[in-house]
Write the structure tokens for this entry.
Amino acid sequence: MSGESFDWHGFLGRWQEEWIPREDEDEDEEEEEGEEGDGDRTAVRLGRPGAREPAIAAAEERLGRRLPPSYREFLAVSDGWHVEQTAGVYQLGGVADIGWFEDPYDMTPLYEENLGANPRREDVLLAGMWKRALRLETDSDMSHALLDPGDRDQDGEWALYVYKGWSGEFPDRYPSFRAYMEAMYRGFHADRAGRADFVNATTRAQDARVARARLLALRGRHEEALPLIEEALSFGRPHSAVLLNQLRHLSAPHSSRDHGFLAADPRYLPEILPVAAMTPARGEWRLGGDDHWLGMMTARGVPRDTAEAVLGTMRDGTHRYAPPGPWGEAVSEAREQARWGATDAAWRTLRDALPGWETPGPSLIAPIGLLADPVLGPLVTPERGREILATPRAGEAGPAPEPVPDLDPPGLAWLTEPAANRRPSDGYRCVWVEGIDPARLPALIGEEGAELSAPADPREAFWRAPKPHEREGVELWEDRAVVAVGRTAEAWAFAFDGDSHHLGTLFSSPARAASSAGRAVVVWRDPRHSSSGAHPAAFHLAVAEQGEELYAFTVRGTEIERSGAIPEALDPARLFPPEDTEPDRERRLLQTLHTELGLSLPRFALTQGRLPTFTTRSWTRAPREGEGFVYVSIGGHRP
């Protein structure tokens, strides 16, 4: 708090002039406390005449301390005040009423015993506050307003703590008496914001701030809009909360936000209700499950069958964000791109169309519904969320923001990086088929009856799929992979498994089956190995065309098995020199596959996005006579 003068006369006079009882208060009782008793709502006197300087000085002599500046100035204007917190402190006394608190409830030991070996400064101050503090309240609900002379700033202001004895919570801290009174004034407004007759200069000014903030937000100036909305919200002004939650939600897209009663308004329901259903659809709604959430939506005016239907589509991944107009057309185009893994291209499509987004009503300032789309929602990272907020839209003008850089690196080398969100012990395997529609892959390498699923999290698909011993008609030796499906920028359809099993001697490559529709490439990386070196890491590459394998090799440690006419650039002896480390070998091969064959994989879609999946035929063959296999199933959840 700076040392600038504060107009206590104007501040307290405005508070007195604006005073009106809350809707839950008995106006007759309030009038009995007033001086007039004539039914005038403003008859209640919140303060008293100011204390004269000799009375303030006498109180300071009695207390043995000079009072902090803002409290001293307040007393000179009003010797006490009716703060009227909804639950807590009701009346602040004057110079004749204040006195030292002296910790009558023995709170000091309770706070000191929790300080630990290296306590924070604020915790030390709080523990010592109880014996030092000056008590201000004269009427309260087991609550105390305490000024702490030991917690002071550079201007000599004492921190004020409000302790609600019935709550069991830590005290609320305000940096000064003035800060406390300003907060109480805002609370006074917020308590009455729902009254139609509570209209005054302050409410009009705050409502003007909300309107100004809305225009700033639509012009892409969300950083300027944010403090205006936050201040209006502290006064409880209508529409401020829903606007603020939209700004905060897009700044942190994967958080949960309550957009209030917008879900019940037909104008906003298609955008807001699916967003509201995201948390219960993920199974994260802890307050009574679906019934509680559905009951809450019904209480807000959403038909229960509508809420149930939306929750169902969110849970099974079939929801589609479908706004009208050119923006809606761009959303459809972007979804088709992202559906097959082209998430950067999808984001560019959305970015280009965003200025044409139209709000269905004044309470919506951004396309929040995008977050609920199972394919497009994951694309909205915090950086991209802020790019949305910084983009002028809904017919408003302003400079375009600097575009957020693309997120997908070229090629395959990212598979070796920790940023891939894969555990070091995980292998991966992939089938690429050149120039075909990814939807054809299940017919080429899928198990009998395989179909593409709705877009799913590739990282979870494997763990949710039943294991061989859980499936009727599946042999234990079978290794049926749950693969994510997409298309690369170079027009290769791919089927990727990021949790592959051990590359054993029963391996049966799907390259021939995949190549019946065009050139096919199979890569299997198995980094699982023992510390003794008995099971070295393995890498397999096979290239086939028209149902025939052209060449292949498998590298296990220093052993190389090869077949066919392997191009010089892909010679495993060159790619896997024994003196190199395993990461260097892997990185060299992946880079060569990108430069020589044009292979790539979309990192974002595979690690954070949503892609269709299906289950392949077994990647292992049946054991022949004299061969054996071991099947191990370990229960539990993925760490």
User: Anything to note?
Assistant: The chain is about 35% helix and 15% strand.
